[in-house]
């Protein structure tokens, strides 16, 4: 499928302007996020007076390299889905910067983002609500071509049927409606729509959470095959650590709107550095009854208390209210996300398996 050639531009783009980007090389930074924030105002009364804000995303710094898969995990409500919508510019950031191939797209308007929609696409979580029930599959998958004014070689219908075959559906499904398909088939339709214009970056928001376990494996394997075939770059958001381990090259762990740990897949699962990451991994079930009987596997860690409200997060480290290693410095000083000698980026004053970032404050809050 042919695609309009885009030229490189490193100049700052005014709001509402048009961005142009160049072809990325394997391993180069495709997406760079700095200080990204999204605060949703909370209003009250007849005059809608703002009385607070939900700090859904409160300062994210990370990058995504061309050809890799970045997995994002965390509890429900930690800001994962909001982050995905921010980097695809479906939401307007409160603060921070988003660069796509060196071009600042943080405040581009609708017209400015239109050419970039070819390169940045999203697969939504719910395959039942993300497809228009009044449109046929052919109309849904062909919509990106019509919106971008792209005329595929061989005709639009043939191209859509080819896309349906690529994601494991039949070309005969072209004239059917979404209600005639199962959940897994609907998600495949959403994947076909996202891949229609050969994007460079695909953000998948919980792509398998609404599917049966057997169908999850099929969709995950499909995403892997498409990445290898088309050279895609993924940001996959999920709460299932087993799925993330299968598909990701690097993994970011989020808690209350912030990234608390970021490293490669093997290091994260073998030597988690942040106490919250360790607690998450301890909750992953081990599908081996012999290990359970012999007492093998990870030590189960039960976190005390509830997740704090994102409207009023704790001072200092946001995890200190539930952390068994918390000291006074955790209560008063927010830990920065720094790279340790192990290669992990960790936001913790007392990281696991490493010398403390803040030595000398060893009195635990639970002891006090």
From TrEMBL:
Domain ABC transporter residue range list: 31-281
UniProt-listed Gene3D superfamilies: P-loop containing nucleotide triphosphate hydrolases
Record-linked PROSITE patterns: ABC_TRANSPORTER_1, ABC_TRANSPORTER_2
One Pfam family here: ABC_tran
Keyword Transit peptide: no
Disordered: annotated segments: 1-26
Keywords: ATP-binding, Nucleotide-binding, Transport
Family note: Belongs to the ABC transporter superfamily.
Protein name stated in the entry: ABC transporter domain-containing protein
Species of origin: Streptomyces albiaxialis
Highest classification ranks of the organism: Bacteria, Bacillati, Actinomycetota, Actinomycetes, Kitasatosporales
């Amino acid at each position: 499928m042919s695609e309009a050639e885009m030229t490189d531009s490193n100049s700052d783009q005014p709001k509402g302007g048009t961005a142009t980007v160049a072809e990325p090389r394997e391993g180069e930074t495709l997406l760079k996020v700095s200080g990204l924030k999204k605060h949703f105002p909370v209003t009250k009364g007849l005059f809608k007076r703002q009385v607070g804000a939900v700090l859904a995303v409160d300062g994210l710094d990370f990058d995504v390299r061309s050809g890799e898969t970045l997995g994002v995990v965390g509890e429900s409500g930690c800001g994962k889905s909001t982050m995905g919508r921010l980097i695809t510019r479906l939401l307007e950031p409160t603060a921070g910067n988003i660069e796509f191939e060196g071009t600042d797209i943080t405040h581009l308007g609708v017209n400015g983002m239109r050419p970039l929609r070819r390169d940045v696409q999203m697969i939504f979580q719910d395959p039942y609500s993300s497809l228009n029930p009044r449109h046929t599959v052919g109309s849904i998958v062909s919509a990106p071509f019509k919106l971008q004014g792209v005329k595929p070689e061989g005709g639009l219908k043939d191209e859509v049927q080819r896309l349906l075959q690529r994601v494991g559906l039949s070309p005969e499904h072209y004239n059917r409606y979404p209600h005639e398909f199962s959940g897994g088939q609907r998600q495949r339709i959403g994947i076909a729509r996202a891949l229609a214009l050969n994007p460079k970056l695909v953000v998948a928001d919980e792509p398998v959470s609404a599917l049966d376990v057997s169908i999850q494996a099929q969709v995950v394997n499909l995403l892997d095959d498409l990445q290898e075939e088309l050279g895609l770059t993924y940001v996959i958001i999920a709460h299932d650590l087993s799925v993330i381990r299968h598909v990701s090259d690097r993994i970011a762990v989020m808690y209350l709107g912030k990234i608390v740990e970021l490293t490669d897949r093997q290091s994260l699962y073998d030597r988690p550095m942040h106490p919250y990451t360790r607690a998450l991994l301890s909750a992953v079930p081990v599908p081996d009854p012999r290990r359970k009987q012999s007492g093998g596997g990870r030590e189960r860690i039960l976190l005390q208390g509830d997740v704090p409200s994102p409207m009023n997060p704790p001072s200092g480290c946001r995890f200190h209210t539930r952390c068994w290693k918390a000291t006074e410095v955790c209560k008063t000083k927010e830990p920065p996300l720094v790279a340790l000698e192990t290669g992990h980026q960790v936001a913790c004053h007392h990281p696991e398996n490493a010398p403390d970032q803040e030595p000398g404050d060893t009195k635990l809050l639970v002891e006090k």
